[in-house]
Amino acid sequence: QVQLVESGGGLVQAGGSLRLSCAASGRTFSSYSMGWFRQTPGKEREFVAAINRSGSSTNYADSVKGRFTISRDNAKNTVYLRMNSLKPEDTAVYYCKATLSSSRTYTYWGQGTQVTVSS
Predict the structure, then answer these.
(1) pLDDT (tens digit per residue) in 91-119
(2) Nearest to 13 by CA among 91, 114, 94, 67
């Protein structure tokens, strides 16, 4: 019902900033809660940030609080992750997630975008 495409990843130095974007298509974007997760080889995918359908509520992993900001623009069908004060341990593939909760719960994932932070 929805396709997600992440972009904005790249190589940055420690202390730098990067903004990731996730463009959605398909079912009405505003119906979905959105989130960002990240994963490194050999490790489980971990939660990074989430935002509710209207954008009025956000949630962050402790490891990124104060540094990352999730936001959404429903008119553009896009969710963002602004990452500041990046650390080498932030290096991972970042994935966009969409969740639709109605009579059933549906979850969709993007293909991921690589973020590499050099020391």
Answers:
(1) 999 999 999 988 899 999 999 999 999 99
(2) 91
